[in-house]
Design a protein that fits this description.
Two copies of one chain form a homodimer. The first copy, chain A, folds into two domains: 49 residues, Orthogonal Bundle (Helicase, Ruva Protein, domain 3); 118 residues, Dna Topoisomerase Vi A Subunit, Chain: A, domain 2. Chain A has seven helices and seven strands. In chain A, strands 4-3-5-6-7 form a five-stranded mixed beta sheet.
């Protein structure tokens, strides 16, 4: 028998499923939410649910969007001749914060990870290759994270893309090895883009 | 113009209102939630909203409950002769984890804090005094946090309660000064209860 009222316990259990929120923090948040005015909790719950249902994938690049095309793909000032390949939609947001890259993106929604059973068919590689068949793309910049899975994915993609006569580059290791792209600062990301090398 | 899709931005804004969740963590959580299966997000949003609406205050002590009386007040094996006064419902949960205290509680829902404009009428002091009028209570243990507001509240309550011929005690400073009751371990809390002194 727990000493925590059941509704709070259930809130805490759901919150504890989120990344970075441990059992204690989840309980603390649940008690906090139980004491909030009802309209604030309504706003929070609605934002989560409506946010989730409003979000869809860009038909072109796989980024999050509310329309059929994301803001980048719909922008006539962005060049489709250079594609930047990233793992996650949040990596697009990180890259966009630099205001440096004027091409478009391709979001893989994951990286190759045999340990986790994630193979080439589980991420959006087929969709990437499809975008390279009509000769509209000159260069693919692979901007997966500089960790084991990210590097393996980059090597794998380079092998697939080179025969299509498309230049394949990799962002420089300006991003500290072992960390995640989304935490890099704008200057580091710009340096990483500039220092990209042929694969 | 932000680079984050509006629904995710709105999720992040709501999440960032919660204690201990900064702007970056909120964004990270929002992106995570956007990628979850819809049924999991539904479960999370429902747990928060239903949890909030299911929760009410115990008519006797002010603890959180789903019934009119909380689990402690409804328990015939708990003695009403000793009341433990705490600031928050989560302090009840912390105290209950010790399995040591067999009396009942009174939850103030706050402590005196002139700096924040919180005076005696803003917390459940009147309700506490009402419980002491019929001679059913022998002792009031004041278990507010060992910080400035907690101590001031304890002193204030002692002055009000002593004329009613009720023993007033304060938990010992076994709880490290400056920290919060809810983070104390069970042993420290038991020691604090045992070492309580007359006020």
């Amino acid at each position: 028998m727990t000493n925590i009222p059941e509704p709070i316990d259930r809130m805490a259990a759901e919150l504890a499923r989120l990344p970075g929120i441990g059992r204690k923090s989840a309980q603390r948040l649940a008690y906090h939410i139980a004491a909030l005015p009802e309209n604030e909790v309504r706003a929070l719950a609605d934002a989560l649910w409506q946010g989730r249902t409003a979000i869809r994938f860009c038909e072109e690049c796989g980024n999050y969007t509310q329309e059929s095309l994301c803001r980048v793909c719909a922008d006539p000032n962005r060049s489709g001749r250079v594609l930047c390949v990233v793992r996650d939609p949040r990596d697009v947001a990180a890259m966009e914060r630099t205001h440096d890259f004027r091409g478009k993106y391709h979001v893989l929604h994951g990286v190759l990870s045999p340990m986790d059973g994630i193979g080439p068919d589980d991420i959006r590689i087929r969709e990437l290759l499809a975008r390279l068949t009509d000769g509209q793309v000159d260069e693919v910049i692979i901007a997966t994270n500089p960790d084991i899975e990210g590097e393996a994915t980059a090597t794998y993609l380079a092998r697939l893309i080179k025969p299509l006569n498309v230049r394949v580059t990799r962002i420089a290791h300006g991003v500290p090895v072992g960390s995640a792209l989304e935490y890099a600062d704008e200057v580091t990301l710009v340096k990483a883009m500039q220092g990209r090398r042929e694969l």
